[in-house]
Amino acid sequence: MRCGWDEDKIINTIEEVAKNPDRPPVMSDQSGNYKFSGTRDGVEIEGYVTPDGQIQTGYPVRGKGVVQNDEFGNPHPVP
After folding, report:
1. pLDDT confidence band for 3 (50 / 70 / 90)
2. Which residues fall within 8 angstroms of residue 36, CB to CB, at 6 or more apart?
3. pTM over 0.90
4. What's the DSSP call for residue 13?
5. Phi, psi at residue 16, to the nearest 5°?
6. Which residues make beta-bridge pairs with 37?
7. The pLDDT of residue 25 is above 90
8. How far is the C-alpha of 66 from the C-alpha of 60, rounded, in Å?
9. Strand partners, 57
10. 8 A C-beta contact, residue 46 and residue 2
11. How far apart are CA 59 and CA 40, in angstroms?
């Protein structure tokens, strides 16, 4: 568990943002995939869905508890 988000919360939150994004999804490539984004519980989430609505990926961008590794693998908070 990381920062209070277990696997189920992560998956459910990504699905929630994909289904109900804060902003209209934008086409991200010529394959027709769309980028979605939204903030839940203080964490900004981004991800991509296929033209038929399948979630390809979702990940935290910034917010409470979000870290990003530097080139040496050391985690640093992302505001």
Report:
1. low
2. 17, 18, 21, 25, 46, 47, 48, 49
3. no
4. H
5. -60, -45
6. 46
7. yes
8. 7
9. 48
10. no
11. 12
Q: What dihedral angle (degrees, nearest 10) is formed by the CA atoms of 5, 42, 40, 59? A: -60
**Per-residue b/e over 43-67, b at no fewer than 16 CB within 10 Å?**
bbbbbbbeeeeebeebebeebeebe
**Which residue reads 């609505």 in tokens?**
53
Give the pLDDT of residue 20.
97
Q: Is the pLDDT of residue 14 over 50?
A: yes
Residue 38 burial (CB count, 10 A) = 19
CB atoms within 10 A of CB 9: 13
Please give the DSSP secondary-structure letter assigned to residue 12.
H
* pLDDT of 2 over the 60 cut: no
**pLDDT, average across residues 29-33:** 91
